[in-house]
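User: Hi! I'm working on a homework problem where we have to compare a predicted structure to a textbook description. Could you give me the structure for the chain below?
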Amino acid sequence: MDHALLAAGEFGSYINGLKILPVVIVSVVWLRLMTWVDKDSQDARMPREIVNGINLGGWAIAMAVMLMPLSFIAAFGI
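Assistant: Happy to help. Predicted structure tokens:
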């Protein structure tokens, strides 16, 4: 195998650093709010495990939608 031929190949830009930043910001804010809801669920006498499961499931669904091959603006808006 000719390594010079492999080194000469161009690779596409599959990851854009500017597009990953809003996803990380939304994730950090969402996970921070999850800790706030967790603390408040004890005071409101709500089932803590169910509330955390719903919040974590919502975050997972939101991440799955944002990673779908839609346009970035449409996926982020959803």
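For your comparison, note the following. Helices lie at 3-8, 17-43, 48-67, 72-77. The mean pLDDT is 79. Good luck with the assignment!
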